[in-house]
Design brief:
mainly alpha, about 50% helix, globular, disordered C terminus
């Protein structure tokens, strides 16, 4: 696989607007999997409770234990919390949009940095306009791909600061309201919890909260999820890939990403049922069984870089040496 110097480009329609129609024709029972799962709120409470317990547990431990706990425990708790925010974003807990937003803010409360409300807006654009840089916040910016390139050190730094990378993409995005009363409430709640943790439990609990966030979506085997979802790391040119490994148990089936993009109104507990019904389609395309191995592969293989993403619409841009349309790739 030669080193890329530009993204992939395609003129084809997003497969997630096409494939679900074919699947439902053969398996209309999938319509019954669509709906709300208010019991998911119990998972939100569990994650918040576990992380609060860890704040108290770690506040007087040695510094080495703070970072070890963030890597081994906090990362998994906050990754699950992100999945809960994702469920709230798609309004899969309650009928009321406001109640889903409040549940998302609660899940975000122990995650050090406020993101639930903004994520909800940018993520829905990602589903509707996948691959369009001005609307899809999941895409890396061109400066990211150029800066971190394909070296081990560059990609490791990118993973470590992945939460920062997501924030720095915001200025390029269009059609999203950046600030309102919901965003303000999100800030007040999360920064209020941060202050309380530091004031009542001290700097170690505060640093644990910060480290848990960065490990949960960064330089950690869980980071393989961000590669798995939309980076094209092997074989055919395919915009979305699923993960069917054991970590789906603690990540609440977030690995079923093709299934989710095809049927975003299906809650996490029913995604395996969608996979089973549509197995003919999903088993016939590329998928992954290990986030850890994918994470290591992406970091260590020099052929892989942030350029391994599919873009749409920017065809007026002159194709550079590594550029190609999907058909040619």
């Amino acid at each position: 696989m030669p080193k890329r110097t530009d993204f992939y480009y395609t003129e084809e329609k997003d497969i997630h607007f096409i494939r679900p129609i074919d699947i439902i024709k053969e398996h209309p029972e999938i319509k019954g999997y669509i709906g709300k799962n208010p019991a998911t709120f119990l998972i939100v409470l569990l994650c918040v409770g576990l992380q609060c317990g860890m704040f108290w547990f770690i506040h007087d431990k040695p510094w080495w234990a703070v970072f070890l706990a963030a890597w081994l425990v906090g990362a998994f708790i906050l990754h699950a919390s992100f999945v809960m925010i994702h469920e709230c974003t798609h309004n899969l807990l309650f009928k009321s949009k406001s109640n889903n937003l409040l549940a998302g803010i609660l899940s975000n409360s122990v995650m050090f940095f406020p993101s639930a409300v903004s994520f909800a807006r940018y993520h829905l654009k990602h589903h509707a306009h996948q691959g369009i840089p001005e609307l899809d916040g999941d895409l890396p910016s061109e400066w990211e791909a150029k800066t971190f390139n394909n070296s081990f050190i560059g990609k490791s730094i990118w993973f470590l600061f992945y939460p920062v990378m997501q924030v720095l993409r915001v200025p390029r995005l269009k059609e999203v309201k950046n600030f309102d009363k919901w965003v303000l409430l999100n800030w007040i709640v999360v920064f209020g919890v941060d202050f309380a943790v530091f004031y009542f439990l001290g700097p170690k609990a505060f640093v644990y909260a910060c480290a848990s966030l960065f490990f949960s979506i960064g330089l950690h085997p869980l980071g393989g999820r961000w590669v798995q979802e939309h980076y094209m790391t092997s074989g055919p040119v395919q915009e979305t890939a699923s993960y069917y490994g054991p970590l789906n148990i603690v990540a609440f089936n977030v690995g079923y990403h093709n299934e989710h993009h095809d049927f975003p109104s299906v809650p996490w507990n029913n995604l395996p049922k969608v996979h089973q019904a549509g197995e003919k389609w999903y088993k016939g395309i590329a998928y992954h069984n290990s986030w850890t191995m994918l994470w290591l592969k992406f970091i260590f293989e020099r052929e892989l870089s942030l350029y391994h993403r599919m873009l749409r619409k920017r065809f007026e841009k002159k194709q550079k040496g590594g550029a190609s349309k999907a058909k040619a790739a």
